[in-house]
Amino acid sequence: MKKTKEMKGITLVALVITVIILLILATISIQTLTNTGLFGKAKEATKKYSEAEEKEKIQMELYYAQINKSTNGTSTNQIGEQLYDKNVENGSKWHIIVINDSKKIYGTGWTYIPRGSTISDTKTNETWLINNSSQEIIKLEDGTFIESKTVVLTTGTYMTSNVLRGHTSTVSGPEDQRTVNTLSESLREAGIKTFRLKTGTPPRIKMDTIDFSKTEPQPGTNQFLRFSETTKQEDVLPFEKQEICHLIYTQPETHEIIHTHLHDSAMYSGLVKGVGPRYCPSIEDKLVRFADKERHQLFLEPESKELDTIYIQGFSTSMPIDVQEKMVHSLPGLENCVIEKYAYAIEYDAIDPLQMKPNMENKIVENLFTAGQVNGTSGYEEAAGQGLMAGANAALKVDGKEPFVLRRDEAYIGVMLDDLCTKGTKEPYRLLTSRAEYRLLLRHDNADQRLLEKGYEIGLVSQERYDAFKEKMDDIEVAREELSNAHIKPNSEVNEYLDSLGFDPLAHGCSALDLIKRPKITVKGLAKYTGLDYETQINEQIEIQTKYAGYIAKAKRDAKHLQQMEKMKLPTNLDYENMDNLSLEARQKLTAIKPLTLGQASRISGINPSDIAILAMRVK
Asked: Could you give the CA distance from residue 272 to residue 15 in angstroms, rounded to a whole number?
């Protein structure tokens, strides 16, 4: 490894790339990850060179320092400024916990510090990727070379990006930051396909200039909701201190302004070349696509307690600044507001995700992992999930261990990555619940049961956290056994309780667990007759597993069929072009995607059952 700058002082540090929770980066961050563990250590062998000691190796141990002394769901709860539970009226299986985190604090919630070393961000607008088969080399604009065994590329929207407003296109990253001009070219030279995407952002408004009396308050909930069972009540911002979102609607005047200036929008002036997000369209796109709608709802969301700015959710636009002024001031409560930041659209380069393996390693360039918007997704939860998986798999690759891949029935992350590397995308991908065929198994209440043991096996979960999980599972099993053995007699008191819930009286006795199968009947509601009551999370699990047992069992049977197909591996060197009886479309798509399993092949668009049957015979 060499570092050259007029042939003087040569120094190299191979950075460790770990979990990146939000991948819309202020700069391009390319780091080297070797071994990861959210509560453990990550070992990274790096090399420092000078002219006198070019071959000296220095071992560094890296450890995680969390500013919030917590990670994942725990940190999310700690920096959350509003919590609410969507779809609660539709039953436990449809619950969605939503949190609005502080924009200001979020970026400081996860910090990685090397022991005995200093790590600084790489800030550059000229970057090249050089592949020499065994290692990756990054060349920066100042002539610096960074060499490492694995590289995770998380460019966000900064790769050859242009900011668009009206009829103006400016070479820039988000919010006037630098773009990266040469990385796309070097990726294409390596054989990696890129394509253009577009996204946008709404205006930010000064909070103290809004007349909130003309808006509809949207308070959160005073329930104790959490994303991690390690979160305690005192870790969550009290309900009375939570920030409140407000609801408003576009007005006829708003629509008139937009229609009048539609030709001035970068979206409709012909300036935009990239494909925008289908499920998060700009406000002008909403008016064109949904012309029958008289109004569109907008949410005024505080960005942080530390900031005096409001994010107009649902109002992204690429209109010129003078038109944005008119549009914003036509909204109720915003007639006299001050716009802190104007909206814009941004085009950028992304990598074709069909060139990505399920473990997020590139098929063309070995040891190169990509994550986030560079893979054609949005920059929200989709990007965060990819950062976790790419970081873990880059570490496992260095350690010579098996890749960490989640199935479609195990996690929404598994659904997303399978969609990307099997079906690809031509627009910014959003992970909708409707994409998951096993979503009854992918509930938020059983996330730990699905994933915690897997995290423990690869070093992402501490022994203490794992022991607590095992204890919880034991408690659930004990509670089920006790409720199964608890006999409910058909006496007047029990029948009065059942009548109050709309049920016929009991003619014969039954177990408490059998009664819990009925809607509205809970463990706590029966405690008066059984003498059995447990912690809220135990009661919740008993009720969900009991009430939806039949549906869950069917989903598991369907998933088991998928697992059997996933076990049938397809050799990477199969010659699909010359395989007899395969359809022409199947040959072309199988050759291009190179699925790793029969299950993955079955999900490729255009592959029919007869093609799968032929492949199954070849791999048996």
From this structure: 36
pLDDT tens, residue by residue, 390-421: 999 999 999 999 999 999 999 999 999 999 99
The full DSSP string for 464-482 is: HHHHHHHHHHHHHHHHHHH
Cα 613 from Cα 117, distance rounded (Å): 56
Q: How far is Cα 60 from Cα 55, in angstroms, rounded to an integer?
A: 16
Fill in the amino acid letter for 234: E
Distance CA(588)–CA(413), nearest Å, equals 27
Instruction: Evaluate whether 476 touches 541 at the Cβ level (below 8 Å).
Output: yes
Cβ–Cβ under 8 Å, residues 109 and 304:
no
Beta strands in 491-540 (DSSP E): 510-511
Residues in the chain: 620
Rounded to 10 degrees, what is the CA torsion of 483, 489, 490, 495? -60
Q: Where are the alpha helices (DSSP H) in 567-620?
A: 584-593, 598-602, 609-619
| Residue ranges in 80-206 assigned as alpha helix (H) | 103-106, 183-189
Residue pair 199/372 in contact by the 8 Å Cβ criterion: no
Contact of 375 with 351, CB cutoff 8 Å? yes
The residues near 584 (Cβ < 8 Å, ≥ 6 apart) are none
User: Does residue 594 surpass a pLDDT of 60?
Assistant: yes
Which residues, in sequence order, are bridge partners of residue 98?
A: 84
Residue 173 CA to residue 179 CA, distance in Å, equals 5
C-beta of residue 179 within 8 angstroms of C-beta of residue 125: yes
The alpha carbon dihedral of 65, 66, 69, 72 has a sign of negative
Q: Where are any strands of DSSP class E within 48-154? A: 57-65, 80-86, 96-101, 111-114, 127-131, 136-140, 145-148, 151-154
DSSP summary character for residue 429: B
Residue with tokens 């791999």: 619
62: left (phi over 0), alpha (psi -120 to 50) or beta: beta
Identify whether the C-beta of residue 71 lies closer than 8 Å to the C-beta of residue 92.
Answer: no
Residue partners of 99: CB distance under 8 A and separation at least 6: 76, 77, 80, 82, 83, 225, 227
Instruction: Give pLDDT tens digits for 189-200.
Output: 999 999 999 999
pTM of the model: 0.80
Using alpha carbons, select from 189, 180, 331, 318 the residue that is nearest to residue 249: 331
- What's residue 106's pLDDT? 55
Q: State how far the Cα of 36 lies from the Cα of 64, in Å rounded to an integer.
A: 9
Q: How far is CA 54 from CA 10, 48, 58, in A?
A: 9, 7, 11
Cα gap 105→94, rounded to integer Å: 30
3-class DSSP assignment, residue 157: coil
